[in-house]
Prior knowledge:
The chain contains nine helices and 23 strands. The protein is α+β, with helices and mostly antiparallel strands. It has two domains: 3-215 and 252-307, BirA Bifunctional Protein, domain 2; 322-409, 3-Layer(aba) Sandwich (Rossmann fold). The strands form six sheets. Strands 3, 7, 8, 9, 10, 11, 12, 13 and 16 form a nine-stranded mixed beta sheet that branches. A hairpin with a 6-residue loop joins strand 22 and strand 23 (398-400).
Amino acid sequence: MRQSELFTKTQKNFPAEEEATNAKLLIKAGYIRKMSAGVYSYLPLGWRVLNKINNIIREEMNAIGAEELLMNTLVAKDYWDRSRRWHTDIAYEFKSPFGEEFALGWTHEEVVSALAAQFISSYKDLPLAVYQVQTKFRAEPRAKSGLLRGREFLMKDLYSFHTDVEGLNAYYQKVIGAYKKILKRLGLEAKLTEAAGGAFTEEYTHEFQVLSPVGEDTVVYCSACDYAQNKEIALVRGGHRCPKCGSEVLESPGIEVANVFRLGTRYSKPFDLRFTNKNGEKELVVMGSYGLGPTRAMGTLVEVYNDAKGIVWPEAVAPFSIHLVELKSENPSVRKFAEKVYAQMTKAGIEVLYDDRDASAGEKFADADLIGIAWRAVVSEKNGDKIELKRRDAKTAKSVSLEELLKKLQ
């Protein structure tokens, strides 16, 4: 991609109305644009990052046997009535021009239960698991913190169906394992944290919390073992001793990037979601629900990976593999060599953003640091037929040949 043809441009100043680091940097660098409170458009660079995140999520969901689908966002009142979740504070509810009442989907337990009731009839149909990556809408009164708390956001929601609690518990642990893999691949270190179920279940649930000063939750966790609880339900407080191992307990703000719920028969009952067991008897299907927010993960990554110059993307999610920067020169051989480097990398299937703009070296370097692609390659008259290669988070660069560069990135 030639930067001169990129749909967006970087901005010289941070957006005045934003306080969160993730929003400031993503808007300034041209990844997103705020359209209204809690509502953002994802521009080409931002969409590339989201696709990288979603691809990692899909790979790990598919690996545990989940099938992808896409459910309706416009959900009729009848579905919410059955589960007694009509007039939920966070739902966008309205009447159509034809007098029908709907809510925009803020979660999909109702819809997926209604769908599953049409296809599950026997124990032989179970277990099953389906997921989607879809836009959700929530009437968030405190729309702030950039992508960490929005009114419109992307969510990966997974739903599982089982004959019994034992099957649910086994899959619950499988999803926890998959989530750990996803977050590790994204570059996020998260604590598996016990929490309350809220509007989804009366059971205790688990959240994946990334410790961060900007987090809105408070995580109480052990300094030595894996004990961690949301402060809302925590048995101890910071400075106390861990109930599992006796070590010191700490507290930290946390950003919830994922969660897992044991729904049991909470939604099976109102939707008459049943199966016939081996004895020919009807039983309620046991369900689980599991969420992970791609847009929130994107915001969290920026909160974790940034410096005074801009974003520092982990390689797995950077919009491009490398940022090729051509420094302006009167010598035509510089442009010719830069074009050759760009063509060779493109031919090799390497994702490259090529800064071919008529701009100063200072502007190009500042934009490269702000955009934050993991690798930067500089072609200049000073370097001749060598390329100056530098990691975004490194202090020094080294000169390499085109052949060495291609070998390193492939």
